[in-house]
Amino acid sequence: MRYKIGVVGAGMVGGTTAQRLAERNYADIVLLDMPAMEGVAKGKALDIEESGPVLGYDSKLNGGSDHSLLSDCDLVVVTAGSPRKPGMSRDDLVSTNQGVMNEWGGAIKQYCPQAIVIVVTNPLDAMAQAMWEATSLPRERVIGMAGVLDSARFRTFIANELHVSVKDVTAFVLGGHGDTMVPLSRYSTVAGIPLPELLPESKIRQIEERTANGGAEIVNLLKSGSAYYAPSASVLAMVDAVLLDERRVLPCSVYLDGEYGYNGIFLGVPVKLGKGGVEDVVQVELSREERQALDKSAAAVRELLQVMKKPAQAGAGS
Q1: Alpha carbon 307 to chain centroid, angstroms
Q2: Are the C-beta atoms of 92 and 83 separated by less than 8 Å?
Q3: What are the start-end ranges of the E strands in the chain?
């Protein structure tokens, strides 16, 4: 049996994600966007499918804007949303993308209520919460993609600094997806050796800071647009873990119900991912400094959640 995956958003992240998934050859894919982008969704879907004979995959792709294309999807990846533009406040961005989550969350609820949903849209933790509320799905089946990407950046910088293979580097990042994220060097290793035994604290702090600002670094280099190769690769790792029931322990943004002392908030923590979605939240002991940093990150996410309540009270985004 082939799986069916929906990718909502036909921009650079969505298109690249659809390509990577097609090349896995275990699912057929629908690439969706708003009506004004319907041609882009259809064109990219066709282009990716026509790559199959060359690369050797039989994945079938379809594109469009009709919500009903999501029917019977086993998993949906949501990348749709507006990037922050000049003159747009953070509150404006949250409200705009909350409306996008409401629209597509309603479509998922109607056409594929059994699906597992991976949210990529920023601001990530708040948008995962908006999607969870819009779909009314169990918390195990709405997951934010952030920590896998942040950890990949952390691993890259560690490997480059030590001149070792990234395969031997494990890295641990907690918290919200943004500059308040919490890279945990104490739990990061190279071939099992704790990072603090390999690098001085000053160098570790530099790497942690670069990791926290990794997205902004790429935005500044590109001048227009943001990262999409590493985000799409991170989505692929999560999809593999779910559809192949790999039970991998990966850092993801999930709804916390008492774990790490937080309630009613999506936040990045290590979880076990398998066929049911989030099968377990892995809890680790934190130092006082790490706890304070995580509290600060959680507070930043809660600020965004307060912004999300404003349009709901005014009737916007419905």
Answers
A1: 21
A2: no
A3: 3-8, 27-32, 61-64, 75-78, 116-119, 142-144, 169-170, 173-174, 182-183, 189-190, 193-194, 248-257, 263-274, 277-281
Determine the angle formed by the axes of helices 147-162 and 229-243, rounding to 10 degrees.
120
pTM of the shown model: 0.94
Q: Which of 44, 141, 177, 272 is catalytic?
A: 177
Are 49 and 22 spatial neighbours (Cβ–Cβ below 8 Å)?
Answer: yes
C-alpha to C-alpha distances, 93 to 13, 68, 175, 297, 316, nearest whole angstrom? 18, 27, 20, 19, 14
Mapping DSSP to helix (H, G, I), strand (E, B) and coil, where does residue 240 land? helix
Which H/E stretch holds residue 153?
Answer: helix 147-162
Tell me the per-residue pLDDT of 113-170, one tens digit each, with 9 for 90 and over: 999 999 999 999 999 999 999 999 999 999 999 999 999 999 999 999 999 999 999 9
Residue pair 72/1 in contact (Cβ under 8 Å)? The answer is: no
177 tagged catalytic: yes
> 300 is written with which tokens?
């930043």
* H/E stretch holding 208: helix 201-212
Q: What are phi and psi of 277, to 5 degrees?
A: 95, -130
Residue 188 sits at φ, ψ, to 5 deg, of -100, 140
Residue at token pair 């049911």: 276
All structural domains of the chain, each given as residue ranges with its CATH number in brackets, are 3-144 (3.40.50.720), 147-305 (3.90.110.10)
At 144, give phi and psi (nearest 5°). Answer: -95, 135
User: From the centroid of its chain, how far is CA 159?
Assistant: 23
Residue 85 is given by DSSP the state -
